[in-house]
Amino acid sequence: MKTIECMDEMQSIGQEARANGKKIALVPTMGYLHRGHASLMEEGRKRADLLVVSIFVNPTQFGVGEDFDSYPRDMENDRAVAEAAGVDYIFAPRAVDMYPSGYQTYVNVEELTLPLCGANRPGHFRGVTTVVTKLFNLIAPNVALFGRKDYQQLAVIRQMVADLNMQVEVIGMPIVRDADGLAMSSRNSYLSPAERVSALCLSRSIRTVKAAFHGGERSVAALKKIVIDTIGKEACAVIDYVEFRHCTTLAPMDRADEQTVLALAVKIGKTRLIDNGILGEE
Ligand code: PAF
User: Per the residue annotation, which of 37, 124, 214, 246 is the catalytic one?
Assistant: First the structure.
């Protein structure tokens, strides 16, 4: 496994591999790799000849006052996780190379980025779609793998790839959870032990809503109340949003069906966590 910082070098490797008929899989990440990322890499390994993981804490997707500076970083551990998953190249560019002085081009998906995380994190998805486009141009992957924990991000990237005719197959991979249900996230490292226990209210409320749905409840107002009551029991939890949306269009729904996704963002102390579940799935 080799770590590459230089954008030209990465681009040459990608182009040469494609010219030789090799299939490239890309797992874009911001590092601090965990089992969720490892599951993406393992799937990428099965689908391609060359597996690249990008590690880049992308400044353009963080708003003012967000956690760009404190975002956890641990390159040594990231190398070990990537190596164990069979990665060929880590691409870890420098921010000054990705966004040199005078940089002025951004990619923006419109409607899909307005609700949910887009409503409270203006500019976030514009930063995500811009950096993902740059990574696609630099690495030339045939396949790119993203986790379904960032549900809206995945929908936005699919939309961008379709709208801009990008020749990349986007694979959404299931959420990986700890044994107690907490969805794996690099930001879980911010939680104190007590907050980590409180954070279980996200997955608990998804499980409780799914049980009510499978028991016949279809009213989104009633299902939403279950989430609000479950999360309301945790003193340090503050809801950012609780939304029931169509799982592909993200259109709001009054009546739930098998295609409804429950998407949540909740602040546990100072840490903002997201989670989701499709009601029709076990
Ligand atoms: O999901 C992430 O880690 C980031 O948003 C991504 C897709 C790597 C873009 O910076």
Answer: 37
